[in-house]
Amino acid sequence: MKRLAICSGLLLITLVNPIFSVGEAGAIFLLIAPGARAGGLGEAQVAVTDDAYASYWNPAGLGFLKGQELSLMYVPEWLPGFNLDDMYYSFAAYRKHYPYLGTIGGHIIFLSLGEQTRTDEAANYLGTFSSYMAAFTISYSALLSDNRSFGLNAKIFHQHLTDLGAGGEKGKGYSTDFGFDIGYLHKEFLSPRLDLGVTVTNIGPKVSFIDPAQADPQPTNFTLGFNYRLIDEQFNKLNVIYDVDKLLVGSYADMDWNGDGIIGGCDKEGHCEGLGEYNSNGKQETAHTDPIYLGIFTSWVDDWFLGGDRDIPANNESDGKIGGYDWDDNNNDGVINVDQGEIIEAGINPNDGINFGDPDWGIYNQDGVKEVGNSKDRSINDELKKLIHHFGLEYWYSKYFALRAGYYYDQEGKINNPTFGVGLRFAGYGFDFGFTSGEPGHPLTNTMRFSLNMEINSPKQVIQP
């Protein structure tokens, strides 16, 4: 099977959540939002975890629950914009409270990528195979006080893209890895009507498939959520919910960290022979990510404060140098017109008499994009654009019927998805429906989620502070 087939499968998963760029993180399927209730609330749920889905959204929410509960969800056509009938998503969660011990729960995730075609390096047909991804999680939560709780998840997940690599590729097209989640929930935070939730999910080692040297970090994600009970009466309740996500992966494009105008050229020990991913100081300049123990800190400033001038791909391929081209604004409108500019190629050959930093060295790449000095143009706004915002409104009439609306906003990914949903509760059973709207052509547009909740033996009780 061609490597292109594997990359295509990864791309489909990456499109699940626009926080991520291709190659920035692996196992993105762990961030597919389960639960039709969450689906109708713009995926804002971290501070509203009052059912078995808390095992996924915020395990700390389990600590406030008594009794037993089983929850199921099925999405018959995941990413309907791709018209892939055999790509579906299913989720099951369970929780049970033990007096004096806490609440134990867990969930199972299964994502089918459907049937794929296998080919060799010469594009010869070799049959078909199935691709899928699955995860199993165990949860534990206990109260810290009447209105505060913490929770932990331990998970193991398997990604099966293909049985084997192609040609001379090493390794297998599948991986089995583990990770952890931590959560905190504070009810009546600063106000009797306000709840606060915090989670850090998918903490663990890097994920690799064909080549361990190309391993990607897990999609370690930080979420801060609020739930404000705007109306809290016996028969009418209205909650205003907000979550914000931040990917805790320190990620860098090709960058000139030492300011010599060239990307890499040396090995890790600083030996420079024109090859290698490092500069003379032993700092990696080719695209890379920080290990998790650094990424949880550097991810907040990697697109703003850290690094040097970026080697921005021209014609979809980085050229290993910063600038070298000079573009003229012929009509003096302050805009570099690529199709009209006059280009002067300086190159990096020292024999031509022009070197990086000389007056005749252009600051642009061959597509007219500024490279020399672009590190000074970055600001904190570049970090803020990577935040993903979730807004939700949930109205309950008594305890039996709910109407929901939400909004999913990703500035960097240019995605604005309204969501809608309804919920029913009766005799220990709950049914929820969630619908994701959006612009035509977006993969998640017209996604429908269906959920079923069942209270087992004893009715669910929420421990009130």
Layout of strands and helices, then pairs:
Elements: H1 3-14, H2 36-40, H3 54-57, E1 65-75, E2 88-98, E3 102-119, E4 125-145, E5 148-160, E6 174-186, E7 194-203, E8 221-232, E9 236-247, E10 251-252, E11 255-256, E12 288-289, H4 292-298, E13 309-310, H5 380-384, E14 388-397, E15 401-410, E16 415-426, E17 429-436, E18 447-462
Antiparallel strand pairs: 1-2, 1-18, 2-3, 3-4, 4-5, 5-6, 6-7, 7-8, 8-9, 9-14, 10-12, 11-13, 14-15, 15-16, 16-17, 17-18
User: What value does the average pLDDT take?
Assistant: 81
Order of helices and strands: HHHEEEEEEEEEEEEHEHEEEEE
How many DSSP H or I helices? 5
What percentage of the residues does DSSP assign to strands (E)? 35-45%
Q: Could you give me the name of the CATH homologous superfamily of the largest domain?
A: Outer membrane protein transport protein (OMPP1/FadL/TodX)
Residue ranges: pLDDT <50 for 5 or more in a row?
1-23, 339-351
| The CATH topology of the largest domain | Porin
**CATH class membership of the largest domain:** Mainly Beta
Topology, number of strands: 18
Distance linking N and C termini: 58 Å
Which class of secondary structure composition applies to the elements?
A: mainly beta
Named at the architecture level, the CATH assignment of the largest domain is Beta Barrel
Strand order of the largest sheet: 1-2-3-4-5-6-7-8-9-14-15-16-17-18
Rg from C-alpha positions?
25 Å
Binned, the helix content reads under 10%
Q: What kind of sheet is the major sheet? A: 14 strands, antiparallel, barrel
Integer tally of domains: 2
C-alpha geometry: globular
